[in-house]
Amino acid sequence: MILSKKILFSAIALIGVAFSATSCSDDDKVATFSVAGTYDGVFTEEKVGTLNDASVITANEDGTYDILVAPSFTLGSAEFGAMTLRKVQLVETEEGYTFQNEANGVKITYAGNEAQRKYPSILEFAAHLDGTLSKSGKLDFTLDLNHANTVFFYYTFAGQK
Question: Is the pTM here over 0.70, yes or no?
Answer without folding.
Answer: yes
